[in-house]
Amino acid sequence: MTDLSEVLKSLSSLRRSELEEVKKRATFLLQHSMSVVESVEEEDWLLYGIMEELKRRGLHSGGDFRIRHASSHAGFQSQSERVRALLLEAVPGLSLSERRLLGMLAAESLATYISKWRPEPREVSRDNLLRYVGKVPEAIDSSFPDYLSAGMLASVLHHRASIEELNPGASRDALMR
Q1: Domain range for residue 24?
Q2: Are residues 91 and 52 in the same domain?
Q3: Full-prediction pTM beyond 0.85?
């Protein structure tokens, strides 16, 4: 019998207060034992890009923003996961900083895209960027026609990354051109 099997078997003999203590300890360990690599892999770099775009436009109210409940911004998590998977399939092997740059590119494209919708343009706001995150592929295609489908989006990222390498601290506006 493995250690886990023994632990699971012994749970049924514990009192309620002891089970609560096990629950608290397990929750603590889950929250604090995640390695840096796992947390980097799980980072929502698309949300990072959205927040950076809001800052660039002067629309960020400050402080950290996290989606705390599944009901808040319903559908964002699943849409973001789908879009990130699609983008990483189109541009594989990116480092964390390159993924963040891709998130910024995606967010800028989405903000431009929704602000030009016809017949009813949408206001660029946190709520609208989160609500329409599933439209990122269309937005990128609108900003960079056929780059995504042709597998050429990497060239845009590498160009923007090279601007930052040549001019560390370059304004974000220069990076996004």
Answers
A1: 1-33
A2: yes
A3: no
pLDDT tens, 32-57? 544 433 444 568 899 999 999 999 88
In which element (H, E) is residue 54 found? Answer: helix 45-56
Structural domain count, the chain: 2
Task: Provide the total of helices (H) and of strands (E) in the chain, helices listed first.
Answer: 10, 0
45-56 vs 76-90: helix crossing angle, rounded to 10: 100
- For tokens 């996004």, what's the residue? 176
Closest CA to 138 of 120, 116, 160, 161: 116
Tokens found for residue 130: 């989160």
Cβ atoms 104, 170 nearer than 8 A: no
**Same domain (yes/no): 134, 96:** yes
Closest CA to 110 of 70, 143, 82, 86: 143
Helix (H) or strand (E) run with residue 39 in it: helix 36-42
